[in-house]
Structures are given as C-alpha cells and as structure tokens.
Design a protein that fits this description.
The protein is α/β, with parallel strands linked by helices. It is built from eleven helices and ten strands. Helix content is 42%, strand content 18%.
Length: 307
C-alpha cells in the first residue's frame, strides 16, 4: 500500500487531529488508488470532461488530455459540469457508538467520527470538482443547514461546522425522516442528496422522506454507517447492551441472541436496500473498519451517471 493510500484506513485517519487534513489525506489517498482501479481516467482532473462519443464535434476534443491519457475527451460546458450536492449528517445519540477512549483505543472511530470524516472528504472532493456542496446536520430535528456553494472558503466553513459536532446525548434517530422532509422543502434546484446515518429509525417514516426527495427530482445515495461490532456481533461473554437513545438495558449472553440479531439486521438492511432500488436510489452499507474509498467510488459512479 502506498503512503498516500494508507490514509484511506480509518485507524490511520483517526490519529490525524485536524478534520481538514483528514479530508485532504483521504481524498489524496483515494486519487492515488484510482490509477490502479477500474476508474482510471476518471480522476478529479477530468471533472470538466466527458468521453468522446460518435457525433461529437471534433473541434471540442481536448488534445492535451489525449496526450496524457491516449483517450479522447470532450470539454464540457458549465451547464453539463456543475452539480449541486447536499450532505445530510446524522448526529443523534446512536451515532456515538461505541464510546471511544482515545487514550485506550487509539485509532478507533465511532460511527459519527467515521461519518464526519466521510462527509468532509466528500465535500473536499466535490469542491475540487467545482461542484457546489451544502450540508444539513440533524439529530432529533434539523440543527443546521448550509446552502451549497463551490468556493473553497465555503468548504472550510463546512469542515468547521463538522469539526465541532458531538453526538446529541438525548436525541433519538426519529429526526432523520423529518430532516429529510425539511431539506426536500428547502432545496428547489435538483441535485444529489447524500445521507450519512445508521438509519436506526422507523423505516416507514424514513422511506417516506426518500420518496419526498425523489418526487422533488433529487438523486439519492444512502450510506448506512454502522460500527463493525454491529455488523459482526463478535461478543462472546455475558454482556450488558444499552440502547443509547432510549436507555433500555439488556443483560444477556451473546450466543443466545446472535443468530436472531444478525437475521434481524439482514432483514432491516434488506428493507432499505429494496426500497432504495425501487426509488432508483443507491444504498451502500459501510462500517467503521472499511476504507473510505468504497464510499467515494459510489459518489463518482453516481456523478458520472448524471453527467
């Protein structure tokens, strides 16, 4: 692994203090990895180009790009290039799992840490591609909204907003659906909505919100951000499990509930995946052990589809 690509690893990024540096390192590591991936030729430098297709005006071929890539690209007009993106970041109590002690668990991220780093990296990537990016932050209700802009000064404002975020200790995930509706009503221009949440809320209500976004003409990428222990349930001794949003406690041996828990999680995830497919939205499940490139690739896939 190259020195740049290692910054795609959450355990490495967790040791970087400043969020702006985390975002830059993640994106630089991602771009370094593009050269050996199926996305070669779709680096950030080509954000204002598209591949030549039969019938295009030969005078619009960018020969300098051809000289570097041996491929034909057409310079796009501004109307083709600019994309408006919105990051919807869940900061409810459940996103604070697990409670991480940096002195004991160096290199460990909770769900909110992961979501914030991912949101910051997406913002950095969008601004580099001259896209406009906005952000909505919510817990049990919409807490802040930044309209999309494409200036670097705006990126620093967005990162500054994210850098000070902590999970709301008493806020439930019930605000997810309402936040989606609020953003759908606010945003009039069609764009790309990227939702970062563990989705631990009523699926019926959240899905209604997704329908609202699609009715307004927005494309949607839904990132379900889970902790690696939520996905694998590796516990092997008598444990106490606490719902961070309701305070409900359960003392049980994990072997007694593991199969039922994993089956319930699969069913829960499948519901979102199926509903997203029906809406022609993208659903991606990530966990805190995964490198960040999986999510960034999904963003590029969606962006290329729209251009």
């Amino acid at each position: 692994m190259s020195s740049a690509a290692r910054y795609l690893r959450p355990d490495v990024i967790a040791q970087v203090q400043r969020l702006d540096l985390k975002a830059r390192f993640i994106v630089e590591g991602f771009i370094a990895g593009l050269h050996n991936s199926p996305f070669q030729g779709f680096s950030v430098e080509f954000s204002e180009h598209r591949k030549y297709t039969a019938g295009d005006d030969l005078r619009q071929i960018d020969w300098s790009v051809y000289g570097r890539t041996d491929r034909f690209y057409i310079k796009k007009y501004d109307a083709e290039t600019n994309l408006e993106c919105h990051l919807l970041v869940d900061t409810s109590a459940s996103m604070g799992y697990p409670a991480v002690d940096p002195g004991v668990e160096a290199g460990r991220m909770n769900k909110l840490d992961y979501a914030i780093c991912l949101a910051a990296a997406l913002g950095y990537l969008m601004i580099n591609q001259q896209d406009a990016v906005g952000m909505a932050r919510f817990d049990d209700r919409l807490r802040s909204y930044l309209p999309p802009k494409s200036k670097r000064t705006h990126l620093m404002r967005l990162i500054g907003e994210l850098a000070g975020v902590k999970p709301a200790p008493d806020a439930t995930g019930k605000g997810l659906a309402q936040a989606i509706h609020d953003v759908a009503r606010r945003v009039r221009r069609r764009g790309l909505m990227i939702i970062l949440s563990d989705l631990l809320a009523d699926p019926d209500e959240v899905i209604q919100g997704l329908h609202h976004l699609r009715f307004r003409g927005h494309d949607v990428i839904l990132f379900q951000v889970l902790d690696e222990t939520e996905v694998r349930f590796p516990f092997d001794r008598l444990s106490e499990f606490v719902d961070p949003e309701t305070g409900r406690r359960l003392i049980v041996h994990p072997q007694a509930v593991r199969e039922r828990y994993l089956a319930a999680l699969r069913e829960f995830t499948a519901r979102y995946r199926d509903e997203a497919a029906a809406l022609r939205a993208d659903f991606v499940q990530v966990d805190t052990s995964m490198t960040f490139d999986r999510a960034l690739v999904q963003y590029l896939i969606d962006r290329r589809r729209r251009c």
